[in-house]
Design brief:
The chain is of the alpha/beta class and 349 residues long. It folds into two domains: 241 residues, Dihydropteroate synthase-like (TIM Barrel, Alpha-Beta Barrel); 92 residues, 2-Layer Sandwich (Sulfite Reductase Hemoprotein, domain 1). An eight-stranded parallel beta sheet has the order 8-7-6-5-4-3-10-9. Strand 5, helix 3 and strand 6 form a beta-alpha-beta unit. It is elongated, with a radius of gyration of 23 Å.
């Protein structure tokens, strides 16, 4: 249950105040390449993503953003830096939300953005991060960067609130996991929906570890309404990582997939079988536990709560339901036969 008290509507997705946690990513190609941008958005949507962010660095990009907006139902966020005119143009081009760092624009220009967003009922994500912490705020907080980030965000928030604009999503990110967790715990009590992520988390393996610790810790405390698992990888990898995290925490429907690390008892090619089964079930929006194990001695016992499982031994796989064995299949046919069993289970709904 989220701590946020305010709901914010982003296109056809609503976040905050106990709405489901939404998954975000960001296109990694120039929006000027409209075909490549659409290809990424379509794969993102098929993977289960909810909200896509697009960098809009100049006016030609605004025109391209407008064209992309017309081709998809996915909620789109325009990522804006420095030029307030781009924010206004992106709103007028159909952005469902804009993301700005208020520290990058003057107060007068920020007010113009607020007026435009208010007139078009478009929410704003206020984003600050560890790489651009305000020096005055850092001095005022005695060099404590977490406190300085919260202080900066609070000042920006007050500016929006004095202008009666509260259609906001807050985001404070850091490359430091502990720092990111600490700062989000501070701002969680403010009541606004929070966007979570570990910025510049790195390549796939390293990034998964950092994001899982940081985002997972906060979600377990009921903090966070939308997430981006930032990775130096294809945007769909971010979606699958976020889905796995939310499913593991019981915050999203999906297959709970388990497989063992193997040991000396394993006599089948478990990694290959597990990968094929995972790829088969990863997009399913049903709540079942599927197990792929490497040993018939411990497999059914260790995964006795699995709705369906398979465990390999001596060139064969034993199939089991809730720990009870019911079928044995030669390893060369096991994966395809197991897929059929999965279809029977899921189609029963």
């Amino acid at each position: 249950m989220s701590k946020s008290k305010i709901q914010v509507k982003i296109g056809n997705i609503t976040i905050g105040a106990n709405c489901p946690v939404a998954i975000q990513s960001m296109t990694s190609v120039s929006v000027l390449d409209k075909d490549a941008t659409m290809e990424q958005i379509e794969r993102f949507e098929r993977a289960g993503g909810d909200i896509m962010r697009i960098a809009v660095p100049d006016m030609p990009s605004v025109a391209a953003f407008r064209a992309v907006r017309a081709q998809t139902r996915v909620p789109l966020v325009a990522d804006i830096h420095f030029d307030y005119r781009l924010a206004i143009a992106a709103i007028e081009a159909g952005a469902d939300k804009i993301r700005i760092n208020p520290g990058n624009v003057s107060e007068a220009h920020l007010d113009k953005i607020i007026d435009c967003a208010k007139a078009n009922a478009v929410p704003i994500r206020i984003g600050v991060n560890s790489g651009s912490v305000n020096k005055d705020a850092l001095h005022a907080c005695g060099g404590d960067r977490c406190e300085a980030l919260a202080y900066s965000l609070k000042q920006y928030l007050r500016h929006f609130e004095t202008r009666n604009f509260t259609d906001l999503v807050l985001s404070v990110k850091s490359t430091n996991v502990r720092e990111c967790v600490s700062i989000n715990r501070i701002i969680a009590d403010w009541g606004y929906p929070l966007h979570l992520g570990i910025t510049e988390a790195g390549l796939l393996n390293q990034g998964l570890v950092k994001n899982s610790i940081g985002i997972g810790s906060l979600l377990l405390d009921g903090i966070g309404d939308t997430v981006r698992v930032s990775l130096t990888a294809d945007p769909t990898e971010e979606v699958y990582a976020a889905k796995d995290m939310l499913v593991a925490l019981g915050l999203r429907n999906g297959i709970t997939f388990v497989s063992c690390p193997t040991c000396g008892r394993c006599s089948v090619n478990l990694p290959a079988a597990a990968q094929q089964i995972y790829d088969y079930v990863k997009d399913m929006n049903v709540n079942y536990k599927i197990a792929v194990m490497g040993c018939e001695v411990n497999g059914p016992g260790e995964c006795s709560d699995a709705d369906l499982g398979m465990a390999g031994a001596n060139g064969k796989f034993v199939f089991f339901k809730k720990g009870q064995r019911y079928k044995t299949v030669d390893s060369q046919y096991a994966v395809e036969e197991f897929k059929k069993e999965i279809d029977k289970l899921t189609n029963a709904d």
